[in-house]
Every structure is written in C-alpha cells, then in structure tokens.
Amino acid sequence: MGTRKITVLPGDGIGPSIIDSALQILDKVGCDFEYEFADAGLTALEKHGELLPQRTLDLIEKNQVTLKGPLTTPVGGGFTSINVTLRKRFNLYANVRPVLSFAGTQARYENIDIITIRENTEGMYSGLGQKVSEDGRSAEAMSVITREGAERIVTFAYELARKEGRKKVTAVHKANIMKSTSGLFLDVAREVAERYPDIQSDEMIVDATCMKLVMNPEQFDVIVTTNLFGDILSDLCAGLVGGLGMAPGANIGKDAAIFEAVHGSAPDIAGKNLANPTSVILASIQMLEYLGMADKAEAIRSAISAVIAEGDRTTRDLGGSHGTTDFTQAVLERL
C-alpha cells in the first residue's frame, strides 16, 4: 500500500507550532506518514494572494485526509469563513466533536465522554439567503433542511455509535417551535432510530439539552443535531472538559476528511511557545481512528492523559507554567 500521504495545513498564528507538536508525536508512535504541506488562511493570502490557493484544494482532494491548524479569516468582504468554504467545497457533511475528561485539567466534571455530531452543510448556519433591507431596519436569512441531509447525518451518528460500542444517541431539535425544519429533522431521526434497535434512542429539545448538559452531563453519550445547534452545543461540551484547548474536531464527507483544532489562531501568543497543542494532537488521534489505526490512537491518548494528570509539564491553560515544546517533549518521552 506504500506510505500514506497526509495533507497538512499548518495554519495561522499558533498553528504551525502546535501542528509541529502533533507531527512529532505521530512520527514517534510509528505512523510512517508522508506529509504534504499547503497554505491556507492569512499565511496563504500573504504568500499567494488568496486565502485558499488551488494547490491546497488539489492536495486536500488528492490525499483525502487532512490535518489542519487554526486559520484566520480576515474581516471584510469575500469569504464568510474558510472553514465553511472547505466544508461546502468537499461536502464534509459530518462534524464530529468528541470531548473526554482528562484528570488534571481543572475542568468542572470528571467523567465526561460525549461525541457531538453536527450536520455541517444545511440549516440556519449555512448562510443561505442572507439579506438586510435598504433602510437597515430588517434582516433575514433562510434555513433549509433536506430529508437526505438529515438522514445522512443521523445514520452517520448511529453507525459511529455502533462502531465505538456507544449505548445511546440523543437527537437534539426545536421541533416544538420550528415545526417545519426542526420537525423534518426529528421525523427523520425517529425513522433512522428504528433501524438501530441495539442502541438506545433519545430525543431532546435544544434548550433543555443545554440545561441538562450543565446539570448532569454524564447522561449524554452521542448527540446528533442540526448545524447551528451543533455549533453551540459542541462548544458547551468543550467547556465541560476544560475548554477549546481540549477539544478536537473532524469534518467528514464521502471522499475527504479534515481533522482540526477547533480553537482560533491566537495571534497574541503566536511564536511565544505558550500554546497548548492538545486540541490538534487529539485531532490527530481522531484521524488515526478514521484511518483504522486505533492502537496508535490509544497509545497517544494515554500518553497525553498521563502528562496532564502528572501536571508538572503542562501549559498555562492547564494550570502549569510550561510551553508548547516542553509539553510535547513530555508526551514524546511517555511514548
């Protein structure tokens, strides 16, 4: 089969340094990948005059698996968001955001293990039909949910639950008020649930879900929902385990997958060796699982877990006083 080629987008700000950490760890655990680097975001704009150069798009398509650092979308015209553009371009319909408690993170909870699966291409978030009236007194946007889109994402959630031996899938909606769009999503979720009698199915209104996630998050296992709700809930879940520095994300489609740190590019601490690389390392673990390399994924996860639990070489956001390179070195030694 030869060496697996991976497209790597180091990204902006702290991106290159945390991506470097992740690659060192992947090499150490013996993945034997060949990395093909490409530019996107501000870095690409400065070097090539565009945010998403054609070469970058070609590499994402060719290698089908991409590891990506945080990108900065400049304020102003053109792209609404590079991330949204990539999702649409490659039809990455499933956004997968796992959160897992690690001892030593100063998070409020100890035994969280939740995966939020968010539809990535439709609904309110996709920005369809946005317009503001001439006089600036009214604005509107359009939300479109399709049966196909809903079925695809809910099926994805159940298949993932089955593959990972998960017990329960909760479909999150607002069908009581948004009877058309959220109503269709819920109808489809109920139909799909019947095909998976081996998995417990639950449904919950989005506001109640937020309250329950704060009061008793241990009851959740896999959450599946529409684009905007998923955007909000996945960040809430990240907060349960210590914030965005502990939360990776995957964007998965039929022909391509992009694995990323979900936090921003933090230009204020770029180049200062302060960033916590955990999010992008966890994203690389997701990538390994996607590629069927579960043993290597588990080795890295337990090494990270041990380093954070010991706490003597962690970054500032984890309560330590060390930098990116020290933390990475500690994980490498563990491996």
Automatic annotation (TrEMBL):
InterPro entries: IsoCit/isopropylmalate_DH_CS (IPR019818), IsoPropMal-DH-like_dom (IPR024084)
UniProt GO molecular function: isocitrate dehydrogenase (NAD+) activity; magnesium ion binding; NAD binding
BP GO terms, sorted: isocitrate metabolic process; tricarboxylic acid cycle
UniProt xrefs under SMART domains: Iso_dh
Keyword Ubl conjugation annotated: no
Record-annotated Isopropylmalate dehydrogenase-like domain positions: 5-331
Keyword annotations of the record: Oxidoreductase
Family membership: Belongs to the isocitrate and isopropylmalate dehydrogenases family.
Name this protein carries in UniProt: Isocitrate dehydrogenase
Organism expressing this protein natively: Paraferrimonas sedimenticola
